[in-house]
Amino acid sequence: MGEVGDVAGAMLHALQAAMLSPWLYAILVGLAVLDVFFPLVPSETALLLAGTYAATAGPEPVLVVAAGALGAVLGDLGAYGLARALGAGLLDRARPGSHADRAHTWARTATERRGAAVLVGARFVPFGRTAVTMTMGATRYPLRGFVAFDVLASVVWASFHCTAGYVGGVTFSEHPVVGVLCGMTIAVTVGALVEVLGRRRDRAAAAAATPAPEPAPSPPRARP
């Protein structure tokens, strides 16, 4: 646990230093691109921190959102294109019952039921962005529909995290780290709520699609 805490602390320190860098917006773009391939990349934390600093005359919130959304779209297009080139066999490589197998199964089912709109909710589910994007590419989902909803999902995602950080920054203007933690709490809570609502919707859709059992035939009436 100590090593994990040290890594997290070093990461937060590096991100804080990036807030004062003239390359901040390029860094935000790069992190959002890498996040789809390596979900542990702290792109959300970077947006939250940038939003927190934006509350105290730091980076421009509009540019923070634009950088995050641009990086997200570029990363998703790269992942989609890679998965599309590899084909459906990419999904079959996952070991049955593994986390990757369950994630792709969930993504495929959600895409079949909700179409490209699933991209918006998947942004707030752990590993959801990667699973849905790769699955849509591997199954050759139409590019036009993918791009339209991916742009929407990216803007919503970047705006939400920047706003959550901004709220934390306004509330705890003298303690930016506390502001980030406040923003992270908001983001995690909303993400959990989105996942719960999505699972309930999927269960309801599955129940509605299940045909009702046919009534048993009535026994023949006895003749008088």
From TrEMBL:
Residues 204-224 are annotated as: Disordered. One of its GO terms (cellular component) is plasma membrane. The chain crosses the membrane at residues 23-42, 62-83, 146-169, 175-194. Residues 41-166 form the VTT domain. The keyword Cell membrane applies. It is found in: Cell membrane. It comes from the Bacteria. Keywords: Cell membrane, Membrane, Transmembrane, Transmembrane helix. Residues 212-224 have a biased composition (Pro residues). It is a multi-pass membrane protein. Belongs to the DedA family. This is Membrane protein DedA with SNARE-associated domain. It comes from Terracoccus luteus.
